[in-house]
């Protein structure tokens, strides 16, 4: 089984203290920093753009996992690469040119992720298995933190892991995002996920080290 990756989503952090918030979760032992980019079109919320990623990159060497919830993400790939993203995840539903978007990310020397909304079938993934380093199975509808995990998405996690295994792509990460906390993380792991995004479960807790440890402890149970 792959080593679990804990990726706090800064969407739930205090944006007025963003640098301190990121510093705190890195010191608390998180693995990646998950950055939610929303454009007000693909999802009904607006968040972070390349300047904020660039500003954080001046201070941190951690892995920046950039989740692009934007229409036509291919327009933004170069800007986020230049800003310091290590991996970029695009939504299957956000562009008719998803294969090209994944190719562009890899041509920039970055890891490419493909995200599937709760209502999206993983069938299309079968044509993209060679082009992904990560599959993000959204466990909530994208747009906001603090939602409850949609239970039907866990069967999709298992299906995606099976497709990857059948294709010999054991190296590909399966990420879950939304509603992950100590009470749900183990189910997601048992379904086949190895990367766990957690926003409110980390940033709504006063002690972030304890919050991250609670997630890891739930995985060990
Ligand atoms: O992509 C996202 C929302 O679209 C966030 O990463 C996700 O919602 C994390 O928040 P929480 O852990 O509080 O559910
Ligand atoms: Co996200």
From TrEMBL:
Keywords: Carbohydrate metabolism, Isomerase, Metal-binding. Its cofactor is Mn(2+); a divalent metal cation; Zn(2+); Co(2+). Substrate binds at residues 9, 67, 143-146, 177-179, 199-200. It comes from the Bacteria. The active site is at residues 36, 177. The keyword Metal-binding applies. GO terms for molecular function: D-ribulose-phosphate 3-epimerase activity. The keyword Metal-binding applies. It catalyses: D-ribulose 5-phosphate = D-xylulose 5-phosphate. Pfam families: Ribul_P_3_epim. A divalent metal cation binds at residues 34, 36, 67, 177. InterPro entries: Aldolase_TIM (IPR013785), Ribul_P_3_epim (IPR026019), Ribul_P_3_epim-like (IPR000056), RibuloseP-bd_barrel (IPR011060). Pathway: Carbohydrate degradation. PROSITE patterns: RIBUL_P_3_EPIMER_1. SUPFAM superfamilies: Ribulose-phoshate binding barrel (SSF51366). Belongs to the ribulose-phosphate 3-epimerase family. HAMAP family: RPE. This is Ribulose-phosphate 3-epimerase.
């Amino acid at each position: 089984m792959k080593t679990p990756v804990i990726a706090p989503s800064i969407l739930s952090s205090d944006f007025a203290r963003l640098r301190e918030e990121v510093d705190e979760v890195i010191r608390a032992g998180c693995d990646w920093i998950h950055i939610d980019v929303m454009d007000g079109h693909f999802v009904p919320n607006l968040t972070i753009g390349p300047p904020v990623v660039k500003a954080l990159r001046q201070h941190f060497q951690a892995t920046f996992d950039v989740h692009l919830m934007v229409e036509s993400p291919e327009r933004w790939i170069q800007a986020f690469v230049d800003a310091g993203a290590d991996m970029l995840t695009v939504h299957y539903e956000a562009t008719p040119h998803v294969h090209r978007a994944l190719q562009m990310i890899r041509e920039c020397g970055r890891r490419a992720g493909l995200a599937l909304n709760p209502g999206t079938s993983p069938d299309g993934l079968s044509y993209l298995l060679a082009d992904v380093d990560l599959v993000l199975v959204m466990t909530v509808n994208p747009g906001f933190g603090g939602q409850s995990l949609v239970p039907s998405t866990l069967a999709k996690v298992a299906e995606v892991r099976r497709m990857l295994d059948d294709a010999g792509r054991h190296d590909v990460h399966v990420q879950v995002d939304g509603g992950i906390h100590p009470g749900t993380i183990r189910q997601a792991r048992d379904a086949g996920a190895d990367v766990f995004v957690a926003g409110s479960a980390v940033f709504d807790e006063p002690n972030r080290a304890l919050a991250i440890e609670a997630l890891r402890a739930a995985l060990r149970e």
